[in-house]
Specification:
Blueprint (H helix, E strand, L loop, with lengths): L1 H9 L1 H13 L3 H10 L13 H8 L4 H28 L4 H16 L12 H8 L4 H18 L2 H22 L8 H5 L3 H13 L1 H9 L7
Length: 222
């Protein structure tokens, strides 16, 4: 039993799973607003630690820099997801393990262990985590996210459409374009399950937003 426990603890996959969750859980939006403005973003607006709530929390305090901190939050949240997947690639871990690491990084962001398992919606971390695994679908999903956000200025709609388009393209692109095995999820793990799981997770974190959308109460990001 002890031998099995030690094997589990020292297994490189398990070590990476833990790192992914803990690193993904770093609440950059919370840290930035706490350090520079002495506010607790989890007690403001939606309580999310993501870029949209960072912007809404700061626009009345420091409108000049609100968008800058919002953008910085997006970059940092995406980077933490990208970093753990890149690290897994450097260590040449199996593709199935890399996808699990991506999922755990997103879970860490949505349920941060540093904030009593509160967090953000997971979109930026999802894009950062997945873009090294399926870059074509990831980049196109990112473009949809940015375009819809620019036009409609409703963060939840742009996030959901960006993620949903990435999932849809994941089912389409590998069958119409000849892709290298390194960026073809079918060749990698013979399953679309990871992107479906990520999509379900993002959808779940946006349930309050979806309810507000149906009620016509979801606010624009101006």
């Amino acid at each position: 039993m002890i031998d099995n426990l030690m094997y589990t603890i020292t297994n490189i996959n398990v070590i990476f799973y833990i790192i992914a969750f803990l690193f993904g859980g770093i609440p950059f939006g919370y840290v930035l607003t706490k350090i520079f403005y002495k506010i607790d973003i989890t007690q403001i607006g939606s309580g999310s630690i993501g870029a949209t709530n960072v912007y809404r929390a700061l626009k009345d305090i420091d409108s000049k820099n609100a968008k800058k901190f919002s953008l910085l939050t997006i970059i940092l949240d995406a980077t933490k997801g990208m970093f753990v997947v890149l690290l897994a690639k450097i260590f040449d871990l199996e593709y199935s393990v890399q996808y699990m690491i991506a999922i755990l990084a997103i879970l860490g962001h949505c349920y941060s262990p540093y904030l009593n398992f509160r967090g953000g919606k997971g979109v930026a971390t999802a894009i950062g985590s997945i873009i090294l695994l399926i870059p074509i679908e990831g980049i196109l999903g990112l473009l949809v996210w940015g375009f819809v956000g620019k036009v409609l200025k409703i963060s939840s709609i742009s996030s959901l459409l960006g993620v949903l388009s990435g999932i849809f393209l994941n089912f389409l692109i590998p069958y119409i374009i000849s892709l290298p095995d390194s960026i073809n999820i079918i060749a990698q793990i013979h399953s679309h399950a990871p992107v479906i799981i990520i999509g379900i997770l993002i959808f779940y974190t946006h349930i309050p937003n979806i309810k507000r959308l149906f009620k016509g109460e979801e606010k624009k990001v101006l």
